[in-house]
Design brief:
With 401 residues, the protein is α+β, with helices and mostly antiparallel strands. A nine-stranded mixed beta sheet has the order 1-5-6-12-11-10-7-9-8. It is globular and about 60 Å long. The relative contact order is 0.14. About 8% of the residues have low confidence.
């Protein structure tokens, strides 16, 4: 017998998992994100947000250790131990995390496989756009072209609530009501706490859900200077995105003490759990950072949910596993991929200011990083220091000398 919350993966399913993993790591590499490996065993930190749910053990010296329960904090430790030579730094990771409390939503799973990226050392609307666009490309690579990304702005909620001057416990109570979209409760709380000038604005937050028109609705409200700046940042970021199916949820009030800008999750119609999620968390784990994580177990559940009409077949049945969504047929192996050590060949081919050119160049098989600023002098200096030979600007490729 194996421990509760763990499972075996038989050949058809295991092979599909490996195929999907390869799609993600290849995609992230094409966007300039370098793979790192992180220890599965960490020092136990009681301050960690998942400390109470982590597996703990004691080594022979008496130190309390824990199995990795989260990748983002582990990556932050890596960045602190090995600061990058230059910023921005782009990392991708893949591996397992463990939680002592089983997840009932996924059949009591306690062992998870995750993939993710972190863009570290830069904070700008362009950087947020990069993460959102890459999240959408990840969904497409996994076969979820019909998925939608819900984008929230916890910083907007936090800045409005903090402007009320209320006590922390009162702000937290309001936050919970906003996040649950419980307008009657929120109205009663605002009255009980004697919030006056900002009450109509705060009461409107749960209803700020929908397409880009939500931004216009939000601007009609009475906003603080900080809240106005939050909206300006989000609007600048969304203006750079290509045609990505988005829903805005400006009443999303998740983890206000962690997310300092956007927060997003992706859903598909026939599966109720998020396939990926992330956001900006400047000043929490790292000075400047934004990223997202994909949960492989949820991806597999969504691909082969009862509504999808696709089932995993036993290898004894002789039926090749195929998912119309993912386009993966396990009757034919992936074609040969040469294995080599990292070298200067891993330096991106192009640094792109022109995002349309970036998409075209990636489609041609080139590795392209996106610009995080409009300052061409800074971008040329960065490209020169990294050895990137070309920069894509306004429809042309400029050689870096």
């Amino acid at each position: 017998m194996i421990p509760e919350g763990t499972r075996y993966y038989l050949p058809p399913e295991a092979r599909l998992r490996r195929e999907l993993a390869g799609r993600l790591t290849d995609l992230f590499h094409g966007w300039g994100y370098d793979l790192v490996e992180l220890p599965a065993l960490e020092r136990y930190d009681p301050r960690h947000v998942l400390a109470e749910r982590s597996f703990k053990l004691v080594d022979k010296t008496g130190d309390v250790l824990a199995l990795r329960s989260d990748f983002t904090s582990a990556l932050a430790n890596l960045v602190e131990a090995f600061p990058p030579e230059r910023y921005p730094a782009r990392y991708q990771y893949a591996g397992q995390v463990w939680l002592r409390e089983a997840d009932a939503e996924l059949g009591r799973v306690r062992e998870y496989t995750q993939f993710g990226v972190e863009l570290v050392g830069v904070s700008s609307p362009q950087a947020d756009t990069e993460i959102l666009e890459l999240a959408w490309e990840a969904l497409r690579a996994l076969g979820f072209a019909e998925a939608k990304i819900e984008v929230g702005l916890p910083s907007l909620v936090r800045d409005l609530l903090e402007s009320t001057g209320l006590q922390p416990f009162q702000i937290e109570t309001l936050r919970q009501a906003i996040h649950r979209k419980n307008i009657p409760e929120l109205s009663s709380l605002l009255e009980a706490y004697r919030v006056e000038s900002l009450a109509p604005t705060i009461l409107a937050l749960p209803d700020l859900y929908g397409g880009l028109e939500v931004l216009n609705e939000a601007r009609k409200l009475s906003l603080t200077e900080k809240a106005q700046a939050d909206l300006d940042w989000l609007e600048a970021s969304l203006a750079l995105l290509p045609e990505v199916p988005l829903l805005l949820d400006l009443g999303r009030a998740r983890r206000l003490d962690y997310y300092t800008g956007i927060n997003f999750q992706a859903y598909t119609q026939d599966f109720g759990l998020p396939l990926l999620g992330g956001g900006r968390y400047d000043g929490t784990l790292l000075p400047q950072a934004c990223g997202f994580t994909v949960g492989l177990e949820r991806v597999m559940e969504a691909l082969f949910s009862p509504r999808s009409g696709v089932a995993l077949f036993s290898p004894r049945s002789g039926v090749a596993l195929f998912s119309p969504r993912s386009g993966v047929a396990l009757s034919s192996p992936r074609s040969g991929v040469a294995l080599r050590l990292p070298s200067e060949a891993d330096v991106p081919d192009v640094l792109a200011v022109d995002r349309a050119m970036a998409r075209q160049l990636r489609a041609e098989g080139q590795r392209v990083e996106l610009a995080w600023t409009d300052d061409l002098a800074s971008l040329r200096h960065y490209a020169r220091s990294r050895g990137i030979p070309l920069i894509a600007v306004e429809g042309r490729l400029e050689e870096i000398t």
